[in-house]
Specification:
Blueprint: E1 2-7, E2 17-24, E3 28-29, E4 32-33, E5 37-43, E6 49-54, E7 59-69, E8 74-86, E9 97-109, E10 114-130, E11 133-149, E12 152-165, E13 176-190, E14 193-209, E15 212-228
Antiparallel strand pairs: 1-2, 2-5, 3-4, 5-6, 6-7, 7-8, 8-9, 9-10, 10-11, 11-12, 12-13, 13-14, 14-15
Length: 231
Amino acid sequence: MVSVYGRGLDVLSPKSSLRLKANITQFRFGNYVLNGINGDIARRARQPLHASSALNPMLGGDFTYSGQLSAKNVDGHLRGWFRRVDLRQLSVMKDPYVVSAWVDVDVRSDLKNHHYISGPLHQLVLTSVHKHGEQHLAAGNLDITASINGAKTAAHVNGKLDYANLKSLGLMDKPYVLGTEANLAFRSDRPKHYTVEGYLGNLKLDEHRGGKVVSLFNGDLNVHASMAGNC
């Protein structure tokens, strides 16, 4: 069942009003499986958009968005649980990665070259989903601020990374597992040139050898690195 009430033909126009309720049991659009969608979206003319949704396994959660939304601009606040974000089904990545997190973030974008996000990502979990099961890749609680302005990128990450499987993430050849309290700044002012600065506290690096866990490093690190090439 889909119910729509409104005024104006362009639903993204500031002059339009919209109230949409959806309860969709089964629906497929191209490669997107949109089964089990329940949503409630409300917008009054010249007022912020308010939305809450509990979606399907491709994009599942219970969250709200409040702010401005147009064909050329997004400026608002996103809050709530994203219990399942399938990055491959959403065509964001080729790898079968699924993310879940509780978010409370400000978002801004011109939907072209300028993007911004800032706020906490709590109980963040990254898994790899295959036919024979799921593999735990990373987990933690992070505060992030990131901006993209054309070719320039700047980001700051602060928080606790409880677990990161470096081999499963494709970062190293050996079965290393890392945990740390991170405070890192990342900057790229031109393509394929990167600078990372900050602090890794209580850094613990282990190697998993069969049923054994071998400790490789336990301590703190100050980081200042400049890199060129593919990151």
